[in-house]
Amino acid sequence: MDHKVVTYPAIFKPLENDIYVINFPDVKGAITEGKGLRDAMKMAADTLASRLYNKHNLPKSSDPNDIKTANDGSFVVKVSADLTEAFGNRIDYQI
């Protein structure tokens, strides 16, 4: 089976206690958080997949170098998500 993998830049903003708030400037409503970078990356990939797995027209991905961050320790990272796997993991709710 072919997998549809997407990659989008995400802004990671560090907070106290090793917490990161993550948002995707190109994906409306895609925001999450994680404790530590490992958890933050996992949460970012999960959030990206959950926002895009059923979209037919995906938003254009910005060049990470064009994304401006606040002077608060924030940084930009490219995050990938497997939309095929995310689609297969969803429950088909039917009323």
From TrEMBL:
Highest taxon of the lineage: Bacteria
SUPFAM superfamilies, per database record: TTHA1013/TTHA0281-like
InterPro entries: TTHA1013/TTHA0281-like
Name of the molecule in the record: Type II toxin-antitoxin system HicB family antitoxin
